[in-house]
Design brief:
Number of domains: 3
Structural class: alpha+beta
Oligomer: single chain
Shape: elongated
C-alpha cells in the first residue's frame, strides 16, 4: 500500500512541474468565477457550464495521455522497477491519481460555488446538496472517464498520433457534441454525451438538476466498459492477472454491464429541454389530444372518500380506494370515469370483487356486476401504474400532481386536456364538487407539500372541496403569518408583501362584485415555475382554492412585474375555475375574464393599455357572438360607467353560474345595460 501511494506522489511531483497543468486549473476556476458573476441563479449557472465541462474533458484526456507518456519523457522506468510488482502498482497508482484529481477539481468547483452564493444571501436549501451531486456526476465522473480514456489511448497509440485521436474523442463525448455530430445524429449525440443532458435548455426550478439515476447508470456503464478494456490490457499485454482472476473480473463486469443496460432500457420520465428535446412537452400532449377522443356520458356521481397508497419512484404506482355515491336517481350498470392515459390500470374491484373495465385513452368504464341504485354503498379499488403527463411530473426528481389533473380516478369523464378552436392545448378541470375526505400513504421524494395534514409514518389526511394536490421537488418553504409559502430553492423569496397585498385586493373585489362565497386568502401558496408555453396562457397560470393557491411564475421572486397582467391571471382562478363552472364555449369564458379584469384595473387605477381586449375584434365568424364581442369592445373603450359595467359583469357571471353560454342571451343583457337600464 505504501508503494502505491509513493507512486501516486511521484506522479503528482511530475504533474506540478508542468505549466500546462496550472494554466488549465487556473483557467478552469477563472471561467467558473465569470459564470458565477454573470448568472445570478445558483440553479441556472450549473446548467450553463457545458463549455466548462467540454474544456475539462479535453484537459483530462490530455492528463490521461500525459500520465502514461510521462515515463518515456522523464526516464522513470528504472525508478519504477525498484518497486515490487511495479507494473501493476504503477497502473493502479495512475488510476488512483486520476480519481483523486477528478474529485479534487469537482470539490474545488463546488466549494467556490457554495461560498459565492451563500455570500450573496441565498438560503442553504436542498438545492446545494443537489448541486454537490451534480458536480460529482458531471465534473467528477465525467472528468474521471475522460482521464481513463486518455490513458487507454496512450497505451494503444504510441507517439504524437494519439493527440488528434483524442480530439476526435473529445468532440464526441462532450455536452456540445451536437455541434460536431449535427441534427442527423442527435440520438447518437445524446448517448455519447457525458455532460449536461440539456446544454442549450433552461434550468427547471421545480425539477432541479438532471441527476436522475438514469444518468448515473449511464456513467457507470462507461466505467464498466473501460474496466473491461483495462482487464484485457493487464492480462494480454502484461500478463499481470492469472486466468482465474481474469475470468472472475470479466464475469463481474459483464454482469454489471447487463444489469446497468437493463436499468437504462426501462422507461424513464426525464426532463428534456433545448436541442435535446425531441419536441416541447406541450406539443407531445397536443399531438395526442388533437386526435379524436372517446366520449362518455357524464353521470351525477360523487366521491366522498379517497384512500390512496401512492409510490413514486421511476414512475407512479397507486392503489386507490374510492367511496362513491350515486346521485343520478337511476340505476347504473356501466360506471364512466376518467384517468390520465399514461397511468395504466391493472385491476379494478367493486365492493371487494374484481370487475371488468375498459381503459381507452383517458376514458374508463367499469362494468358493475349488479345494478347500482341510488343510496346503495359502492367502494371501488383501482390499481394502476405508469408515467404521468410531461406537464405534470411524477418521478424521483419532482412531483407535481395538482387537484385539477385526473391523476386520481375522476368522476368527470372529460380527458385531462383538449384542443380549443385555436389549436391550443387547454386543461380540463377535474376538481371535485363536494367535500371529500382524503387519506394518503406516500413513498417518494420528500419533503412532500400538500393540502392535507401530515400524520405519522408517511401518512396525510384531510378534507377538501376541490381535491388533492401533491408537490415535491427542488423547493423550499417558509411560513409568513398563517400562510405557508412554497417556492423554488434557487430564489430568495423577495417581494412577498407586495404580492400578498395585490392578491388580497383582487380577492376582496371579486368576491364583492360577483357575489362569490368563501374567497379567503389561502393556507398555502405554491409557486410553480412555468413548465411550457401552454402554462403561460392566461387561464392556465393560476388555480385557486381556499386551502391552496397555485401560481405558475416565470420570475425568481414574488414580484409582480406587470400588475395589470396579474389581474388577468387571477380572475379566472377566483371565478369560474374555482366554482368549477362548465360551459362548452371557452370564448364565452375568455370574454368574461377579459372584461372583468379590464374593469377591475381601470377601477383601481392600474395601468392597462387594453392590449388584451383587442381580442374581441379578432374572433373569426359571424352571428350574435361576433355582434356581442364587437359591442363589448366598443363599450369598454369608454372609461365612463364603470359601476354599470361592474354590475353587468355580475349579471353575466350569474348566467355563467347557471351554465348558460348563450350569446343571444348575453346580447339581450348587454343591450339592456347599454341603453341605460339595469336588471
Amino acid at each position: 500500500m505504501k508503494s502505491l501511494f509513493n507512486t501516486v506522489y511521484i506522479t503528482w511531483l511530475q504533474f506540478k512541474r508542468q505549466p500546462l497543468f496550472w494554466i488549465l486549473l487556473i483557467g478552469f476556476l477563472s471561467y467558473e468565477y465569470l459564470a458565477l458573476t454573470d448568472i445570478p441563479s445558483p440553479g441556472e449557472v450549473l446548467t450553463a457550464t457545458s463549455f466548462l465541462v467540454q474544456g475539462g474533458i479535453l484537459a483530462f484526456l490530455l492528463f490521461g495521455i500525459f500520465v502514461v507518456q510521462i515515463e518515456d519523457t522523464h526516464q522513470l522506468e528504472d525508478l519504477f522497477l525498484t518497486i515490487k510488482d511495479a507494473s501493476l502498482v504503477k497502473l493502479l497508482a495512475k488510476l488512483l491519481y486520476g480519481i483523486l484529481l477528478a474529485l479534487f477539481i469537482s470539490f474545488l468547483f463546488y466549494l467556490f460555488y457554495v461560498i459565492y452564493y451563500l455570500c450573496r444571501g441565498y438560503p442553504f436549501t436542498h438545492l446545494f446538496f443537489s448541486a454537490f451531486l451534480y458536480c460529482l456526476l458531471y465534473f467528477g465522473l465525467t472528468f474521471l472517464i475522460s482521464y481513463f480514456i486518455g490513458m487507454l489511448l496512450a497505451m494503444f497509440i504510441k507517439g504524437k498520433m494519439v493527440f488528434p485521436v483524442s480530439l476526435v474523442v473529445w468532440a464526441l463525448i462532450g455536452p456540445v457534441n451536437y455541434i460536431f455530430l449535427g441534427d442527423h445524429l442527435q440520438r447518437v449525440s445524446k448517448w455519447l454525451n457525458l455532460g449536461e443532458p440539456n446544454p442549450t435548455g433552461l434550468y427547471d426550478r421545480l425539477y432541479g438538476f438532471s441527476i436522475d439515476w438514469f444518468y448515473w447508470l449511464k456513467h457507470f456503464e462507461w466505467l464498466v466498459v473501460i474496466s473491461i478494456i483495462f482487464v484485457f490490457y493487464l492480462n494480454y499485454r502484461h500478463h499481470l492477472l492469472n486466468k482465474k482472476t481474469t475470468l472472475s473480473c470479466i464475469f463481474v463486469l459483464m454482469l454489471s454491464f447487463g444489469l446497468i443496460s437493463y436499468g437504462l432500457s426501462l422507461k424513464w420520465q426525464l426532463y428534456a429541454s433545448g436541442i435535446n428535446a425531441d419536441r416541447p412537452r406541450e406539443e407531445a400532449e397536443a399531438l395526442y389530444y388533437s386526435k379524436k377522443q372517446p366520449v362518455l356520458d357524464q353521470k351525477k356521481i360523487q366521491v366522498t372518500t379517497y384512500k390512496i397508497d401512492l409510490k413514486i419512484k421511476r414512475s407512479l404506482s397507486a392503489r386507490v380506494e374510492m367511496d362513491v355515491q350515486n346521485k343520478t336517481g337511476k340505476t347504473i350498470k356501466i360506471l364512466p370515469l376518467s384517468l390520465y392515459h399514461g397511468l395504466k390500470i391493472k385491476r379494478v374491484e367493486a365492493n371487494g370483487k374484481a370487475v371488468k373495465f375498459r381503459q381507452q385513452n383517458d376514458a374508463v368504464t367499469v362494468s358493475l356486476k349488479k345494478d347500482w341504485k341510488k343510496g346503495q354503498p359502492l367502494q371501488l379499488i383501482f390499481q394502476y401504474e405508469g408515467n404521468s403527463s410531461p406537464l405534470f411530473y411524477a418521478n424521483q426528481r419532482a412531483v407535481y400532481l395538482p387537484y385539477y389533473f385526473n391523476w386520481l380516478p375522476s368522476v368527470n369523464v372529460k380527458p385531462a386536456f383538449q384542443m380549443d378552436r385555436y389549436g391550443r392545448l387547454v386543461r380540463n378541470n377535474h376538481q371535485t364538487d363536494n367535500l371529500t375526505r382524503y387519506v394518503l400513504s406516500y413513498e417518494g421524494r420528500k419533503p412532500l407539500y400538500t393540502n392535507l395534514t401530515k400524520r405519522n409514518n408517511g401518512k396525510w389526511e384531510g378534507k377538501s372541496f376541490t381535491g388533492l394536490t401533491l408537490l415535491s421537488g427542488e423547493l423550499q418553504s417558509k411560513r409568513v403569518g398563517s400562510t405557508e409559502l412554497i417556492f423554488p430553492g434557487d430564489t430568495k423569496g423577495l417581494n412577498y408583501n407586495e404580492f400578498k397585498s395585490a392578491t388580497e385586493n383582487v380577492m376582496k373585489a371579486t368576491a364583492n362584485d360577483l357575489n362569490i362565497k368563501n374567497v379567503d386568502y389561502p393556507d398555502k401558496i405554491m409557486m410553480i415555475p412555468i413548465l411550457s408555453i401552454a402554462d403561460s396562457s392566461m387561464e392556465e397560470v393560476m388555480w385557486y382554492s381556499p386551502d391552496t393557491l397555485i401560481l405558475g411564475n416565470p420570475s425568481n421572486s414574488w414580484l409582480i412585474d406587470i400588475p395589470a397582467y396579474y389581474t388577468y391571471w387571477i380572475v379566472p382562478a377566483l371565478t369560474w375555475k374555482y366554482e368549477n363552472i362548465k360551459v362548452e364555449d371557452r370564448d364565452y369564458l375568455h370574454a368574461f375574464d377579459l372584461m372583468y379584469s379590464y374593469i377591475y384595473n381601470k377601477k383601481n387605477h392600474i395601468k392597462d393599455d387594453g392590449d388584451f381586449i383587442q381580442w374581441f375584434n379578432k374572433v373569426p365568424g359571424n352571428g350574435s357572438k361576433q355582434v356581442v364581442l364587437h359591442q363589448l369592445s366598443e363599450w369598454l373603450k369608454s372609461n365612463k360607467g364603470i359601476k354599470e359595467k361592474t354590475q353587468f359583469c355580475k349579471q353575466w357571471y350569474y348566467l355563467l353560474h347557471s351554465g348558460n353560454d348563450s350569446w343571444d342571451q348575453l346580447e339581450k343583457l348587454l343591450n339592456t345595460y347599454r341603453k341605460g337600464g339595469k336588471q
